[in-house]
């Protein structure tokens, strides 16, 4: 049988047990510009690479603040991301008005996962064509979750989704021990270096095409003291990008010295 007998809607399984509409939505995520998330004991960081459709247009927003304790990075269809982020904002506001406290990160991620899964089960709907990295902090500390169009969610130590994200994941896997022990500023630097790994040779990170979001605890082991979600864009990124350049140049010098000693 041909594939297009089974990919006209999201409620029909193929004989191999696949739902092609969900797989197509996952392909939309892979076509989006890359975003990277990292978490340590005190902070969670999101880093995104922004695209512009043409030279005359503005850059697409990649990181969205949901509440003072949480933000999301998007890869895929920005319109679908807008719908999901607005829903998350409504749920966060409802929690503050009804219970007088911020909504736990795992609860709101479960809610959008349930919403996405419904679209894979009801005729006439399609899966959301967007992947999200959700960074937040609550009573149990900082968290990083990955959301997939199928409705699957995973809590991650570090993650990258979008186009050319495999290079970023390779960097994160190679430096996972350092990332888990890093400080706030070092965590941001690791995120930017992972993002830099995904660039083609003719591109570089600039204040125009980069976004950074940070949320966490105000101090080491501080309970109840939350550092509100902070989004870095434009000129605020200059010291962060300079720190990456200094880090890269320092590693280059160490490598050269090692080669001289070996020779």
Describe the protein's architecture and organization:
- This protein has 263 residues and is of the alpha+beta class.
- The protein has a single domain (29-50, 57-257), classed as Aminohydrolase, N-terminal nucleophile (Ntn) domain (Glutamine Phosphoribosylpyrophosphate, subunit 1, domain 1).
- Helices cover 39% and strands 24% of the residues.
- The protein has seven helices and ten strands.
- The protein has helices at residues 20-31, 78-99, 105-118, 165-174, 176-180, 184-197, 238-262, and strands at 35-39, 43-49, 63-67, 70-76, 130-138, 141-147, 153-155, 158-161, 210-217, 226-232.
- The strands form two sheets. It has a five-stranded antiparallel sheet with strand order 8-1-2-9-10.
- A hairpin with a 2-residue loop joins strand 3 and strand 4.
- The longest helix is centred in the last third of the chain and has 25 residues, at 238-262.
- The radius of gyration is 20 Å and the shape is globular.
- The termini are far apart.
- Belongs to the peptidase T1A family.
- One of its GO terms (cellular component) is cytoplasm.
- It is found in: Cytoplasm; Nucleus.
- This is Proteasome subunit alpha type.
- The 26S proteasome consists of a 20S proteasome core and two 19S regulatory subunits.
């Amino acid at each position: 049988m041909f594939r297009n007998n089974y990919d006209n809607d999201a409620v029909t399984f193929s004989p191999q047990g696949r739902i092609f509409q969900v797989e197509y939505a996952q392909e939309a995520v892979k076509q989006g510009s890359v975003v990277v998330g990292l978490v340590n004991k005190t902070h969670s960081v999101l880093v995104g690479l922004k695209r512009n459709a043409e030279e005359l247009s503005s850059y697409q927003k990649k990181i969205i603040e949901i509440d003072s304790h949480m933000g999301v990075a998007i890869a895929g269809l920005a319109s679908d991301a807008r719908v999901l982020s607005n829903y998350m904002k409504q749920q966060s506001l409802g929690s503050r008005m009804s219970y007088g406290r911020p909504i736990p990160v795992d609860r709101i991620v479960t809610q959008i996962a349930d919403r996405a899964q419904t679209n894979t089960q009801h005729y006439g709907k399609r899966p959301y064509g967007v992947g999200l990295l959700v960074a937040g902090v609550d009573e149990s500390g900082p968290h990083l979750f990955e959301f997939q169009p199928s409705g699957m969610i995973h809590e991650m130590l570090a993650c990258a989704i979008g186009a050319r994200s495999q290079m970023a994941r390779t960097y994160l896997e190679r430096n996972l021990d350092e990332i888990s022990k890093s400080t706030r500023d070092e965590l941001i630097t690791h995120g930017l270096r992972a993002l830099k790994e995904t660039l083609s040779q003719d591109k570089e990170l600039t204040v125009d095409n980069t976004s950074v979001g940070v949320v966490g605890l105000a101090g080491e082991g501080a309970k109840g003291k939350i550092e509100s979600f902070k989004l870095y864009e434009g000129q605020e990124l200059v010291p962060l990008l300079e720190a990456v350049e200094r880090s890269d140049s320092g590693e280059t010098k160490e490598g050269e010295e090692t080669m001289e000693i070996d020779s």
